[in-house]
Amino acid sequence: MSSVQKIAHHIRNKRYSAQEVVSHYLEMIERYDVSMNSVTRLLKDRALYAATKVDALIAEGKDPGPLVGVPFGVKDLFDVKGEVTTAGSKLLSQNNPANQDANVIQRLCAAGAIPVATLNMDEFAYGFVTDNAHHGMTHNPHDVSRFAGGSSGGSAASVGGGILPFSLGSDTNGSIRVPASFCGVWGIRPTYGVLPMQGVYPFAESFDRIGPFCQSIEDLKIVFNVMAEVTTNTFFPSISSLRIGQLEGWFERDVDQDILDVIQEVVRCFSKQGKIDLPHIEQVRAASYLMTASEGGKLHLPHLRAQPMEYDPATRERLMAGALLPVSSYLKAQEIQSWFQQYLDNIFTEYDLLIAPAVGSIAPKIDNPVVFVDGKSVSARVNLGIYTQPFSMSHCPVLSVPIHRDGKLPVGLQLIAKPHQEQLLFAVGSLLEKKGIAKATIVQRNKVL
């Protein structure tokens, strides 16, 4: 595993040139992505040119930034200068190329990082499995017969598969948290408004967030802080004294026992514990579904009227159904959202953190795409976000914590904090990583570092 920190350190100290590192990762993608199908386009010319500029700055004795020479990939709904932002669709493929990078990509490049690829996704980010009608399905790097999760499956698989040090994705109803869990990597859905959405193709603007996938919690913190332009470290003197609330009821049903056991292991790290059964959570999840469908449908309505056959049929049907939802239903869902946000505000007067599963089991098989809800076999494509969707209704930051278990496929947990408490989540994640409870599961490739 080559961490963001290690790559930047070696390039800065001239052990490797940025050109060598970028070339290595481009070769890794070409060699190993055949089985995963996480990458849609290589940005080879841009990446190699950027690497020469980084090497020139280092030769002049200058520091290009904290992410000097680190390659990364972006979900194909971020604007990349000179490339068409397709959002995984045929419909947008004939658009003009972007005339500038998305804001967060600009920030990462200013810190020395180098984009090398665009990454596969569900069309218009509407899905949980990254099954794209135009680019094909992204497969889980740890078992290619299983889903990688979605809609940021290409982003999670590329990091979990060891072919990129970090990547960018988006999360509307779980599209960072679900694939991060299945692919065994760290991810974060930040507080609403913390990261700029300029240059990111929208899905449902009330819920859309962007965030990074990384191989370690420290990498996640470094990359996020660059994206958020955070320049100071926050020190938390006594993590173990934090008050943690374990979500039960809905968040325990249909969850594998070993995941529940790990949650107990996490809870025992804190001196103050409690259990919480969130009320009306089914209605909260339903409201999340409704608002997402309505906002997505109305966004796409002009294209649905003019070019309906350019959509993946499954995406088209869901967007059309959303566009037909009455305003009264949307307003009722907004009332539920407001109530839920206020309810969480009250909970956070008693607790610093909440913990819940991100997924209920390991990634489902592609040829048997089902999960269990209330003991019944149901569609995985529809229900993989059953534990993530409720928290999309909040403004809270959610850390996706990878759980590595010897001999088993990875799963993930959610740690939820009050808005603007990302640094607290990173500190807790670091504690769990040091204790060996949380650990990324990365496919080991030929090492360059």
TrEMBL record:
Name this polypeptide is given: Amidase
Ranges for the Amidase domain?
20-425
Among InterPro entries, the record links this protein to: Amidase, Amidase_dom, AS_sf, Carboxybiuret_hydro_AtzE
Pfam families membership: Amidase
Q: Name one GO molecular function term.
A: catalytic activity
**Which species does this protein come from?**
Commensalibacter intestini
